[in-house]
Amino acid sequence: MFSRTGQIGQVIITVFILIVVVGLLFFGYFAIKDVGETKESVDIVKLENDLELATQAQVGKFGSIETKSFYVPSAIEEVCFVDMNFRYDLWDERDKIPELFEEYGIVGSAVESGVEENVFLFSKSGLEESFVIEGFSLPCPWFGCVKSNHGRVELELKGVKDYTELGFDDWNDNHALCNEPPVAVIRYEPDLVTLNTGEVTLYGDRSSDPEGGELRYLWEIVVPAGPTLSNDQEVVATFTPLMEVDHKIKLTVWDEFDEFDEEVVVIPVSDCDLRSVNAFDTPVTTYTPSVLPITRLSNSITFIEKVKRIEGGEMWVRTEGELVEVPAEAEYDVVLTTDLS
């Protein structure tokens, strides 16, 4: 038989053993955890150094492009970059880049507050680390993120004069922030428009979007009231002039981001079809009067205009009444009169 004292001793020994085992497990867990965290920290430092070295290596290698893979800690799912040289542009245009200030709010806060960190590492739970890399830039929109692919991120490093431009597959180079407005351009046919011309055709086909996107069109007759436009939301529109008056036509074009541009042209409309004239029996080069005010006096027609360039050798009457030969590239107040009888 065991004595009571022996039984108590056995219990004490068992409890002691349990305490030791639990202690080992407990402290062992934290020891392992510390080792894991230390490894993560080492991996982050290594990533920072690798990015710094790769960036500096491309500086000054103008036009040189290298694609490199960088290992990231296992917990990191995404690496985000911000070109802080454009922090004020990003802040001023924040309504055009909601992903920076909403989806990655902490990065947006960094932009707003003026911190220097320009690389941000995100895990599933949020921001894990941020640091500064010198000497890199980003093209517009100056912010972007690349997802980890099996513990690696791939970057394109392009050498420029005094910095390295970063790029990656997810880069959005057609971002609203970078958009340039379109350019509206009008041309029309025929060149000389009269009341007998009939239909005038308007073309917007020389309008352009710098990003190469599709455009929307709207044609309007500003002056005079009355004529209507056909196909006023197409690249080509038409109208028929109803009166002898300058017609002011406006074209507005929009791009996919609703940026727009307008052009207005004035199309003179005459009541006659005169295209070429003779002055004092001296032949002159065909001169289209659509750009000149026209005054009709019985059987003669008179053009009065400050003309910047007319062909040398033509005989014109100056406003003082003197018959002169007008040299090319001169500027005169001139009157040309011809007899239509």
Count of DSSP-assigned helices = 4
pLDDT < 50 runs, ≥5 residues: 24-37, 274-335, 337-341
Shape: elongated
Strand content: 25-35%
Main sheet strand line-up: 19-20-23-21-22
The average pLDDT score comes to: 75
- Domains, number: 3
Count the beta strands. 23
Ends distance: 152 Å
Element string (H = helix, E = strand): HEEHHHEEEEEEEEEEEEEEEEEEEEE
- Rg, rounded, reads 39 Å
For this structure, the quaternary state is single chain
User: Which structural class do you get from the secondary structure elements?
Assistant: alpha+beta
Helix content: 10-25%
Largest sheet: 5 strands, antiparallel
Overall description:
The chain is 22% helix and 33% strand. It has 341 residues and is an alpha+beta fold. The strands form seven sheets. The protein has a five-stranded antiparallel β-sheet, with no helix packed on it. A hairpin with a 4-residue loop joins strand 21 (315-318) and strand 22 (323-325). The radius of gyration is 39 Å and the shape is elongated. The chain starts with a helix and ends with a strand.
